[in-house]
Specification:
Keywords: Isomerase, Redox-active center, Signal. GO terms for molecular function: isomerase activity. Pfam families: AhpC-TSA. It comes from Formosa algae. This is Thiol-disulfide isomerase/thioredoxin. It is a single chain. The chain contains six helices and six strands, in the order H-E-H-E-H-E-H-E-H-E-E-H. It has one domain: Glutaredoxin (3-Layer(aba) Sandwich). It starts with a helix and ends with a helix. The protein is globular and about 40 Å long. It is of the alpha/beta class. A six-stranded mixed β-sheet has the order 1-4-3-2-5-6.
């Protein structure tokens, strides 16, 4: 009986590691072939989870210099922690997806999931996300099923982001 439990644990561990490796390998530039455009009602469910997995949702745009400067930090965190779920919510214009956004992401080596938010009623949806958010970007939500923090600023470096994630999950 004890041996069966150990074997079962080993099998579960292998499955977990294998699925994490598949997830990490599956996140390639081909994921950027389709960038879905959402209104807020459609994107809102992506801002919540029932899991212990760390989720990072970053609102950004190509025209925002602090946002662009922060992208390598988010990329580095995701590479260091392949089980994290990073979602980049572009605030750019939908008509520029093919001509500007996809080439920009390819040039920067971004393989995170990217969606676009195109909802003109910003006064409503910004308050639904966080009533304290002024609407400035970059804006990042760090969360799992139990904890959630909001960051209306760019992260300075990888250590800064790691510290905020640690603070979020351990406070």
């Amino acid at each position: 009986m004890k041996r069966q439990k150990h074997v079962l644990r080993l099998v579960l561990l292998c499955i977990t590691l294998f699925s994490g490796a598949i997830y990490a390998q599956s996140k390639t530039a081909s994921d950027l072939d389709t960038i879905t455009v959402y209104d807020f009602d459609a994107i809102e469910p992506l801002l919540y989870t029932d899991s212990d997995t760390i989720h990072i949702v970053n609102f950004w745009a190509m025209w925002c210099a602090p946002c662009v400067k922060e992208l390598p930090i988010l990329k580095a965190y995701e590479e260091k922690h392949p089980n994290v779920n990073v979602l980049l919510v572009s605030m750019d214009f939908p008509e520029n997806i093919e001509s500007d956004l996809k080439p920009f992401l390819k040039e920067k080596g971004i393989t995170s999931k990217v969606v676009m938010l195109d909802d003109p009623d910003a006064n409503t949806w910004i308050d639904k996300i966080d009533p304290n958010w002024s609407g400035a970007i970059p804006f990042t939500i760090i969360f799992n099923k139990d904890k959630r923090t909001f960051h209306e600023r760019a992260f300075k470096n990888l250590e800064d982001l790691e510290q905020e994630i640690h603070n979020t999950l351990n406070n």
